[in-house]
């Protein structure tokens, strides 16, 4: 793989923009810094690519996005929000999906060398690569990750909403629960939701592995669970998993919510049109993407240099899948 401007910056211990200014000969660079950059260029035998230096200063206004997947309504909504704002700002977007990819570390570093800044979802990029990107001054915005020094983070509120959802289910009189969403990664959204519901429900809820967070995985996990035991309510880590659980319940002849309550998270369009309609937590997916785009632009252009950590408000949306509510009861 060709040497990137990112690797030159890392070797010299400077930012990508500093490497760019040095090679262009425009802009202030201290003489000692210039010597370090030129030494790194020589040692690495670096030749600027077609994108190369100009992208590092934003001349072509390209941003990078690193997501675990591009399938599913959640990622679609976040990307739509991002691209709408990026287009307004005159920035193009290069997208890296890591699903099924090997050498993710190299792919992320290569992308970093060809863009002005990166939007990264959660823990998609390896931690050591993230640390290197922060060290060389790459503008970074993370979505759905705990606050990280040296980078912006944006996420939707999870724990308080999860507690509210759990309390609502207790109000229905349920006593036995399962959470479809493991394995859990400390600090990510799915884990925060688990921590929230467990804080309220305690030992009355168990975590059940789904592998991924798709309709298919939700269906498989719910089918396995419901064939061996029968919780009264399934709390699902997202709406796609919940939609899969609805399919599994239907296959097993279980009525929702009569025999089994099901809840989701996100409030994707399908949640509103499912039968029964899905009780869920609404998070502002498109707003997450839009705010991420503006935050990254601020870091790239130097409008600010101090990282921000922002949490967006979520909302409990009560529909039919969690049980009968007083206004729905027959007279």
Automatic annotation (TrEMBL):
Keywords from the UniProt entry: DNA-binding, Transcription, Transcription regulation
PROSITE patterns: HTH_LACI_2
Entry's transmembrane regions: none
InterPro entries referenced in this protein's UniProt entry, alphabetically: HTH_LacI, LacI/GalR-like_sensor, Lambda_DNA-bd_dom_sf, Peripla_BP_I
GO MF terms held by the record: DNA binding
Pfam families linked: LacI (PF00356), Peripla_BP_3 (PF13377)
SMART domains xrefs: HTH_LACI
Lineage: superkingdom: Bacteria
Domain called HTH lacI-type: residue spans: 3-57
Protein name: LacI family DNA-binding transcriptional regulator
Species: Nonomuraea typhae
Lineage: Bacteria, Bacillati, Actinomycetota, Actinomycetes, Streptosporangiales
């Amino acid at each position: 793989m060709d040497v990137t401007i990112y690797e030159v910056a890392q070797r010299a211990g400077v930012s990508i923009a500093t490497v760019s200014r040095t090679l262009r000969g425009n802009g202030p660079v201290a003489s000692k810094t210039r010597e370090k950059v030129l030494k790194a260029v020589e040692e690495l035998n670096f030749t600027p690519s077609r994108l190369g230096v100009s992208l590092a200063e934003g001349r072509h206004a390209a941003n990078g996005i690193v997501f675990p997947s591009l399938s599913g309504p959640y990622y679609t909504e976040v990307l739509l929000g991002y691209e709408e704002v990026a287009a307004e700002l005159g920035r193009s977007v290069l997208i890296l999906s890591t699903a099924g990819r090997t050498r993710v570390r190299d792919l992320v570093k290569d992308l970093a060398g060809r863009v002005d800044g990166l939007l990264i979802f959660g823990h998609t990029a390896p931690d050591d690569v993230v640390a290197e990107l922060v060290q060389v001054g790459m503008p970074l915005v993370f979505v759905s990750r705990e606050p990280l020094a040296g980078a912006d983070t944006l996420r939707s509120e999870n724990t308080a909403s999860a507690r509210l959802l759990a309390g609502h289910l207790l109000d229905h009189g349920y006593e036995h629960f399962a959470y479809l969403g493991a394995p859990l990664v400390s600090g990510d959204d799915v884990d925060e939701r688990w921590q929230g519901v467990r804080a309220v429900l305690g030992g009355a809820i168990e975590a059940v592995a789904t592998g991924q967070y798709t309709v298919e995985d939700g269906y498989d996990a719910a089918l396995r669970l419901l064939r061996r035991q029968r919780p009264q309510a399934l709390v699902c880590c997202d709406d796609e998993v919940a939609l899969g659980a609805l399919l599994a319940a239907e296959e097993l002849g279980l009525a929702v919510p009569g025999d089994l309550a099901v809840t989701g998270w996100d409030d994707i369009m399908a949640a509103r049109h499912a039968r029964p309609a899905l009780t869920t937590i609404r998070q502002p997916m498109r707003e997450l993407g839009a705010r991420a785009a503006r935050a990254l632009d601020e870091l790239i252009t130097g409008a600010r240099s101090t990282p921000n950590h922002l949490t967006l408000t979520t909302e409990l949306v009560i529909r039919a899948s969690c049980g009968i509510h007083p206004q729905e009861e027959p007279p």
